[in-house]
C-alpha cells in the first residue's frame, strides 16, 4: 500500500513546496504540475528546491485555464508520469498546491487499505445532479463551449443561448454516462490506468475537450466505466460559494478543521500560518480512525452562502440595499398596528401592553414626535423621537425600530392625525397586522367641549385623510394582514371583534376582559348633528338615523 | 446607463483626473520613499493637518493590519506632524500650504498620488481618525481580505463611518499620545441610520448616527454623509469625487447588493469626538476650509445653535458600547457577505 500524489500548482510556491515535502516525507510519491503561465525562471527556482529528492518529480507543463480542458490535460499528464515514476503507488490522490492534509498521511493510507479496490470520487449522474451554479447541468455535455466564461462572458452566454435556440446538440460517445462531481479525487492505480490507457481515449478526450468544466466530469464519468467499486464522495473537503469559487480557510477555522476528521482541505489561504504549522507538524499525534465528517463546516459555509444570497430581512446597510420588490420581508419581525382603539379605550395602551407583552407605543407618527413606550425621547438603537428626523425617511425609521427591537414584539397606534407618509410601506409589509376601527378617532373629538364649528372642520379634515388610508387598504399591493371594521360595526360587539385578533397577534387566548370603553350612546346623535351641519360622516359606518329632537340612549347600531 | 449619461460620467471623471494633475504641483516632497513600494503592497493614503498626537496610534493600528506603505499629504501642520512623519521608514510625505478646500478637501492631492503610485495596489484612503474594522479583522490581516476580494473579482470594499463618542463630557477624558482612542470613545449609535441611492453616482448615501441625532435633528438632510468606500484596487483611471464617499467610474460605488443579499462590508470607526474636538471645531469653523464652508463645524462650535460646549454629553442610555466586529455584524452595521 503506497500513495501517490498529483499536485496542481500555479501560485503560492512556498506553501506548495511545504505541502509537497510533507507528502513526500510521509513516503508518498509526488508529481507536481506547474501551470505553464508561471514564468520559466520562477518554475526552475521552484523545481530546484527539490533537487535530489527522489520522491518529488515534475511533469510537462500545460497552460491551464479555469473551466477548460487544459486542467484535465494537466491532470492526465501528471497522473501518467506518476504511474510510471512510482510503480509501487497503489492509489493516486489529486490535490492542489492550496490543499492541506489535515490528518497524518498514515491514517489516510490505512483508511484506503481498509477499503481495498475502492475509488473515492464524487460522481453523480447528470440526471440527478443539482450541482452547478450556472444552471448548466445536462447542457454541459450536449452543447459546445468554445468561449471563455471568465474572459468572454457575453460571447459565452450568447453562444450557449444560440445553440439552445437553434436546437444544436451533439451526440455523446458510445458507452459514456455523464457524471459530475468534485474535481478532487483519489483513484486506484487500476482505475486510473484503465482511464488513461483506454482504447477509445482519443474519442473521449476529443469529446470532453468541448464540454463545459470537464475537470468536474471527465474522470467522474470515466471512472464509472472502469471502476470496480466507487464511493461517490471526495476525501478532500472543499466548499463552494455562489460564484462557484472555493471558500477559503484561515487560521480561525482551525478548530472546525480539526473536528471535521477530513483527510485534506482546500483551499487554504497562503497566509494561514497557524493552519500550516498545526497540520503539517510531523509530531502531530495520530488521532483516531474516525470517519470524515464535514457537517459542521458545511453549516458554516451554507450559512454564508445564504447570507450572501438572501441577507437579513429588514436590514439596510452599506452591503445591503434591496431594490423595491427584492427586499424579501420589508422589516425584521412581525408587529401590530392599531387604528382608533386608543380613542375608544382611555386605558388602551397599558392594557394592551399587559395583553400582548412586548412593547406598546403610542402614536409613533404623531406630528409632534414619536410617542415611544414610556414616552422616551430616544429608544433602542438610539432612535430619536424627533419628528424631523423621523419624517426625513419614515419607512427607514420604522424599519430601524423593528430591527433594533428584534425579539420583542412591537405594537403601536396609528390614525388620521398622524403623518401618513409611511402608510403604503406598512401595508406592503407582510410583517404588519392592522386592526382598524375606522372613524373611532372621531369619538373623543365629538364628545369634547370644543366649539362645534372647530370640531366639524377637524372631522371633515381627518375624515378625508382616513378615507385615503382606507382606499390604500384596498390597494393591490397590500401584503399586511388587515382586520377592519367601521365604528358602528365595532360598537355592535367589541369583544367579539377584538378577542380573536388579539389572540392571533399574541399567539395565545386569554380571558382578560377589555378595558372600559367610552360611552358611545350619544354618538349617533352627534353624528346626526354633524350631518345636519353639512359634513357627511363616511368612515364611521351606519348607526342608523338618530331620532330627533331628543337623542335616545343607545342608538340602534349599539343595541345588537 | 445610457450613452449620454455614460459620456457625462466620463467627462466628470476626466475633470477630476485633470484637477488631480493640476494640483500635483502644489505638493512638495518631504520624504519620498515610494521607491520601496513593491508589487502587491497594501498602501494607505491620508491628508492631515496638525495631528501629531494621533499619529503613533494611527500608524500602529494600520501597520498591524498589514499596510506596507503610507502616502501622506501634510497640509501646513505646525505641531511637529511633519518631522514625525518624515522620520517614519514606511511613510512617504508631501507637504503643501495650499487650500484644503481648493483641493476639494484633499481629494485632488490624493487622487494625484494614487494615480502615480496606487495602480494595481489595494489602496486604503482614510483620515487619521478613521479606523477600518471588517469581518474577521481580529484573526485575519487586511491581506486576507484583499486576497479574498481579488479572488471574488471585487474591486472595492464599502465601510460606513461609525461615529464613536465617550460617556460624559468630551473634556473629561483627555486623550494621551499612543492611546487607543476607543478606550475613551467607546460608544456608538447602533440603529438610527438611513440611506438612499444617489442617482448621480449610484453610491449609497447614508446618514444618521450621533451627529444626526445631536446636531442635525432639525435639518436631517444636512447631516454628514457616512457612506465610504475606503478600500479600492486602484487603476489609473479611477478618481474619488467627494471625499471617499463616491468614486468614478461609478461601477466602483456598488458596494451594496440590490437583489436582497448582503455583500461583505465593514465600518470606519470614527474617533472624532475626543477632548481635542472642542478646540478643533472652533478653529475649523473659523478657517472655513471644510465641506459646505464647514457648516458642520459651525454647528458643532455653536454658531448655528444647538452646538457643542465642553460639558456636552453625547451619550444616552441606549448608546452601545463597542466590543468587536462580531457585535457590529449582529447589529447589522457590517456584513460578512459570503466570506466565512
From TrEMBL, chain A:
Q: Describe the location of the DUF5927 domain by residue ranges.
A: 266-550
Record InterPro entries = DUF5927 (IPR045971), Glyco_trans_14 (IPR003406), XYLT (IPR043538)
Q: How does it sit in the membrane?
A: Single-pass type II membrane protein
**Entry keyword annotation includes Metal-binding:** yes
Q: What is this protein called?
A: Peptide O-xylosyltransferase
Would the keyword Calcium be found if you checked this record's keyword annotation?
no
Q: Name one GO molecular function term.
A: protein xylosyltransferase activity
Q: Which UniProt keywords apply?
A: Disulfide bond, Endoplasmic reticulum, Glycoprotein, Glycosyltransferase, Golgi apparatus, Membrane, Metal-binding, Signal-anchor, Transferase, Transmembrane, Transmembrane helix
Which GO CC terms are listed, alphabetically? membrane
* Principal location: endoplasmic reticulum
| Entry coiled-coil feature ranges | none
Q: What GO biological process terms are annotated to this protein in UniProt?
A: chondroitin sulfate proteoglycan biosynthetic process; heparan sulfate proteoglycan biosynthetic process
Q: Where in the cell is it found?
A: Endoplasmic reticulum membrane; Golgi apparatus membrane
Q: Which domain of life is it from?
A: Bacteria
UniProtKB/TrEMBL annotation, chain B:
Give GO terms: molecular function aspect only. Answer: transferase activity
Q: Which UniProt keywords apply?
A: Transferase
Name this polypeptide is given: Glycosyl transferase family 2
Question: Which superkingdom?
Answer: Bacteria
What would be one Pfam family of this protein?
Answer: Glyco_tranf_2_4
Amino acid at each position: 500500500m503506497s500513495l501517490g500524489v498529483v499536485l496542481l500548482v500555479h501560485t503560492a510556491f512556498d506553501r506548495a513546496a511545504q505541502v509537497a515535502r510533507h507528502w513526500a516525507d510521509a513516503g508518498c510519491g509526488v508529481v507536481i504540475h506547474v501551470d505553464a503561465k508561471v514564468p520559466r525562471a520562477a518554475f526552475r527556482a521552484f523545481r530546484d528546491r527539490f533537487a535530489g529528492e527522489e520522491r518529488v518529480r515534475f511533469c510537462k507543463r500545460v497552460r491551464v485555464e479555469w473551466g477548460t480542458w487544459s486542467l484535465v490535460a494537466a491532470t492526465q499528464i501528471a497522473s501518467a508520469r506518476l504511474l510510471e515514476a512510482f510503480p509501487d503507488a497503489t492509489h493516486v490522490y489529486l490535490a492542489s498546491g492550496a490543499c492541506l492534509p489535515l490528518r497524518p498521511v498514515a491514517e489516510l493510507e490505512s483508511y484506503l487499505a481498509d477499503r481495498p479496490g475502492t475509488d473515492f470520487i464524487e460522481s453523480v449522474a447528470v440526471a440527478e445532479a443539482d450541482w452547478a451554479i450556472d444552471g448548466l447541468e445536462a447542457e454541459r455535455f450536449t452543447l459546445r463551449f468554445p468561449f471563455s466564461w471568465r474572459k468572454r462572458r457575453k460571447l459565452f452566454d450568447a453562444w450557449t443561448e444560440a445553440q439552445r435556440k437553434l436546437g444544436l446538440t451533439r451526440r455523446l460517445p458510445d458507452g459514456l454516462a455523464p457524471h459530475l462531481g468534485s474535481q478532487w479525487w483519489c483513484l486506484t492505480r487500476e482505475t486510473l490506468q484503465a482511464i488513461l490507457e483506454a482504447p477509445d481515449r482519443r474519442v473521449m478526450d476529443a469529446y470532453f475537450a468541448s464540454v463545459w468544466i470537464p475537470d468536474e466530469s471527465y474522470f467522474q464519468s470515466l471512472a464509472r466505466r472502469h471502476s470496480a467499486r466507487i464511493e461517490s464522495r471526495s476525501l478532500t473537503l472543499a466548499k463552494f460559494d455562489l460564484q462557484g469559487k472555493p471558500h477559503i480557510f484561515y487560521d480561525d477555522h482551525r478548530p472546525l478543521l480539526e473536528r471535521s476528521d477530513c483527510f485534506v482541505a482546500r483551499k487554504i489561504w497562503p497566509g494561514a500560518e497557524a493552519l500550516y504549522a498545526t497540520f503539517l507538524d510531523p509530531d502531530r499525534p495520530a488521532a483516531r480512525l474516525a470517519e470524515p465528517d464535514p457537517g459542521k463546516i458545511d453549516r458554516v459555509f451554507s450559512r454564508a452562502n445564504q447570507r450572501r444570497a438572501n441577507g437579513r430581512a429588514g436590514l439596510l446597510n452599506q452591503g445591503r440595499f434591496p431594490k423595491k420588490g427584492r427586499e424579501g420581508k420589508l422589516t425584521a419581525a412581525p408587529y401590530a398596528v392599531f387604528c382608533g382603539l386608543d380613542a375608544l379605550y382611555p386605558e388602551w395602551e397599558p392594557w394592551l401592553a399587559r395583553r400582548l407583552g412586548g412593547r406598546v407605543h403610542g402614536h409613533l407618527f404623531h406630528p409632534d414626535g414619536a410617542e415611544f413606550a414610556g414616552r422616551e425621547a430616544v429608544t433602542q438603537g438610539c432612535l430619536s423621537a424627533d419628528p424631523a428626523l423621523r419624517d426625513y425617511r419614515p419607512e427607514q425609521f420604522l424599519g430601524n425600530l423593528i430591527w433594533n427591537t428584534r425579539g420583542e414584539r412591537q405594537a403601536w397606534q396609528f390614525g388620521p392625525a398622524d403623518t401618513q407618509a409611511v402608510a403604503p410601506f406598512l401595508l406592503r409589509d407582510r410583517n404588519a397586522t392592522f386592526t382598524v376601527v375606522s372613524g373611532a378617532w372621531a369619538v373623543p373629538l365629538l364628545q369634547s367641549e370644543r366649539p362645534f364649528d372647530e370640531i366639524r372642520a377637524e372631522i371633515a379634515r381627518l375624515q378625508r385623510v382616513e378615507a385615503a388610508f382606507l382606499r390604500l387598504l384596498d390597494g393591490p399591493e397590500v401584503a399586511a394582514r388587515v382586520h377592519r371594521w367601521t365604528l358602528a360595526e365595532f360598537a355592535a360587539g367589541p369583544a367579539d371583534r377584538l378577542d380573536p385578533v388579539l389572540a392571533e397577534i399574541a399567539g395565545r387566548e386569554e380571558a382578560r376582559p377589555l378595558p372600559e370603553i367610552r360611552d358611545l350612546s350619544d354618538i349617533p346623535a352627534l353624528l346626526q348633528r354633524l350631518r345636519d351641519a353639512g359634513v357627511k360622516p363616511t368612515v364611521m359606518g351606519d348607526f342608523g338615523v338618530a331620532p330627533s329632537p331628543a337623542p335616545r340612549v343607545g342608538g340602534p347600531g349599539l343595541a345588537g | 446607463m445610457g450613452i449620454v449619461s455614460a459620456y457625462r460620467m466620463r467627462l466628470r471623471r476626466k475633470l477630476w483626473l485633470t484637477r488631480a494633475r493640476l494640483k500635483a504641483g502644489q505638493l512638495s516632497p518631504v520624504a519620498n520613499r515610494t521607491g520601496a513600494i513593491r508589487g502587491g503592497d497594501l498602501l494607505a493614503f491620508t491628508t492631515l493637518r496638525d495631528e501629531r498626537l494621533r499619529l503613533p496610534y494611527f500608524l500602529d493600528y494600520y501597520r498591524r493590519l498589514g499596510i506596507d506603505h503610507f502616502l501622506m499629504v501634510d497640509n501646513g501642520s505646525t505641531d511637529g506632524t511633519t518631522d514625525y512623519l518624515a522620520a517614519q521608514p514606511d511613510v512617504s510625505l508631501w507637504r503643501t500650504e495650499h487650500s484644503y478646500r481648493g483641493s476639494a478637501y484633499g481629494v485632488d492631492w490624493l487622487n494625484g498620488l494614487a494615480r502615480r503610485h496606487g495602480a494595481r495596489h489595494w489602496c486604503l484612503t482614510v483620515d487619521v481618525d478613521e479606523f477600518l474594522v471588517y469581518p474577521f479583522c481580529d484573526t485575519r490581516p487586511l491581506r486576507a481580505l484583499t486576497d479574498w476580494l481579488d479572488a471574488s473579482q471585487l474591486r472595492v470594499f464599502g465601510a460606513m463611518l461609525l461615529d464613536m463618542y465617550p460617556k460624559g463630557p468630551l473634556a473629561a477624558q483627555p486623550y494621551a499620545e499612543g492611546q487607543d482612542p476607543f478606550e475613551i470613545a467607546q460608544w456608538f449609535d447602533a440603529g438610527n441610520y438611513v440611506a438612499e441611492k444617489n442617482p448621480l453616482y449610484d453610491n449609497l448615501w447614508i446618514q444618521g448616527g450621533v451627529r444626526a441625532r445631536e446636531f442635525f435633528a432639525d435639518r436631517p438632510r444636512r447631516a454628514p454623509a457616512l457612506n465610504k468606500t475606503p478600500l479600492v484596487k486602484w487603476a489609473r483611471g479611477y478618481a474619488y469625487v467627494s471625499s471617499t464617499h463616491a468614486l468614478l467610474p461609478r461601477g466602483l460605488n456598488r458596494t451594496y447588493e440590490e437583489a436582497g443579499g448582503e455583500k461583505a462590508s465593514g465600518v470606519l470607526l470614527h474617533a472624532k469626538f475626543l477632548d481635542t474636538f472642542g478646540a478643533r471645531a472652533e478653529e475649523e469653523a473659523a478657517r472655513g476650509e471644510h465641506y459646505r464652508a464647514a457648516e458642520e463645524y459651525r454647528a458643532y462650535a455653536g454658531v448655528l445653535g444647538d452646538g457643542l460646549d465642553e460639558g456636552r454629553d453625547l451619550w444616552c442610555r441606549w448608546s452601545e458600547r463597542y466590543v468587536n466586529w462580531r457585535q457590529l455584524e449582529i447589529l447589522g452595521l457590517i456584513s460578512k457577505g459570503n466570506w466565512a
